[in-house]
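Progress report, Aim 2. The chain analyzed during this reporting quarter is listed below.
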Amino acid sequence: MNKYLLSSISFFTLALRKKMLCNRLLLLFVFLSAPQFVAAASAIKINNNIYMAQGSSNISSNTFMVITNQGAVIIDTSSPAAAPQHYEMLKAISSVPVRYIIITHGHGDHTGGIELWKESGTHVIAQNNLIELLDYQTRLNGFFAVRNAKQAGKPIPVVSNPNPGNYAGQNPADILFDKKYQFTLGELTFQLFSTPGETPDHLSVWIPELQAAFVGDNFYNSFPNIYSLRGTKPRWALDYVQSLNKVLSWKPRLMLPSHGMPVSGNATITQKLTQYQNAILYVHDAVVAGMNTGADVFTLMNSIQLPPELYVGEAYGRVSWSIRGIYEGYAGWFDANPSSMYSEPPQVALSELVSLANGVDNIIQRAQEILLSSGNAVLALHLADAVLAADANNTDAWTLRRDALVKLKDLSTNGIEKNWLQSGIDEATAKLNSP
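Predicted structure tokens for the chain:
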């Protein structure tokens, strides 16, 4: 049994506050004590074989060039926007033929430069589940165009074909494998393993001669996005744990994630990956334990918190989002409340409750008091939504909603959360500025 399994789902508020302080201090210590690689506007030399073009935060992946005496292997190609610069940076290092392109998984910030790097005779390698992932992403083209833009803090694009069909994904790979694929190029051996986590098609690359592990998006300097706010199929927590175990079994001396900087030294890598998988397993097991005692998802989101020794930061994924993702991944949308079985949303009742409160003015006044006195921006946001359910054009409610979102954004340290909050701020501002 996992030694970090929660013995109880309930926590005292004071204890939580103390842990939050400890967590922040621990994160600062980890950041300051981590091995530092100097980023540059040009490609970064990792060793005599490996060069890296660094991606931008969570928006575009790193691109790696592994140079051998018989040509180069490219691992991940970044986003369409970043790929041309990455290409120029790495081609300035070496113009040897590109023999292989390896895609760690099918997200667009990893596949955006495939055509740019592809030469005559270049093979593109991916895991079998890439085909279904691309079909899924393309099937919901219009949906994801909006969601991806909001999550990345980008303008919403015009989509010419929002509903292209069920199987319209374009597979870029000519080599697909199930569990393992291996090839040799020059003096180096490339072993590719299926390591699901961030996606079902996720793979990791092991080069034994360099003792280097390319781990894609299965490791961040943050808790992972076991659920992504843009929408995703379930990302199974236990898949992450098993995939990280596989990487640990190689005993790497160099770990190269697709976002962030490389990590060197087996002791440091072992410590980071062990902490990471234990953090994931702790949250997973706490959710399962809570589900088996009848706790609802919101109780678990409010009560489960990582202990200081497992806190890995929340700049990318949030523990609370992952708790809900794990819960609903296992149980689906029905919350055992009979009212949830029907098509009428909860907002239908909100307009009635607003009328019982003697109109919207009382609710707005109370929400403003809450926002100013206690700073509970989430509660104020819910009250604004209640008023808007009764009167969708209420200017005071839109103002309150914008002010609550601004406060939440000011408090946030998570890039994805900030972008979604800004999307809400923009919506409220546009509504207030409309005639």
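Confidence is low (pLDDT under 50) at residues 1-40. The two ends are 61 Å apart (CA to CA). These observations will guide the mutagenesis work planned for the next reporting period.
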